[in-house]
Amino acid sequence: MTASAYQQMIFVNLPVDDLEASKKFFTELGYSINPRFSDENAASVVISDTIVAMLLTKPFYATFTKKEIADATRTSEVLVALSAESREKVDELVDRALASGGTPSGDTQDLGFMYGRSFDDLDGHTWEIVWMDPASLEG
Questions:
Q1: Among the four 27, 75, 84, 89, which has the fewest Cβ within 10 Å?
Q2: How far is the C-alpha of 14 from the C-alpha of 56, rounded, in Å?
Q3: Which pLDDT band holds residue 135 (cuts at 50, 70, 90)?
């Protein structure tokens, strides 16, 4: 693979029940809302320069699919995994999510070289936050 200036992005589209509550939840985690791509039907949550979570009201989300919209509080439809720069940052983000109304999801994974915790957001979507020791990736 050759180096390129182009950085591929990911836009994770998630259906939500209460757009305003979801916007508040994600801003409490330290993320920002891009108003240029947000309105009464959608909120563009900027996670990084290349990762965006699009929170869509369920009626608006339904315009993009012919499939039934999963109730993420009862069924698993996606696991969104994000990297963190340290074990402490994993704990910081997950603890903030839990303090902001999220719920714990799964067990803490501590393999020494890899550490992760997860939470469900207000609509039941599961977010895994993981740190991997960079030294373990080298050898």
A1: 75
A2: 6
A3: confident
Residue 25 confidence (pLDDT) above 70: yes
Q: Report the number of distinct structural domains present in the chain.
A: 2
| pLDDT tens profile 82-102 | 999 999 999 999 999 999 999
Residue 48's CATH number: 3.10.180.10
- Do 57 and 81 fall within a single domain? no
Number of residues assigned to the chain:
139
Alpha helices in 1-139 (DSSP H): 19-28, 58-61, 87-99, 134-138
Environment class of residue 54 by beta-carbon count within 10 Å: exposed (0-12), middle (13-18) or buried (19+)?
buried
Q: Which residue has the tokens 């393999």?
A: 111
Could you give the CA distance from residue 100 to residue 87 in angstroms, rounded to a whole number? 20
Rounded to whole angstroms, the Cα distance separating 52 from 27 reads 13
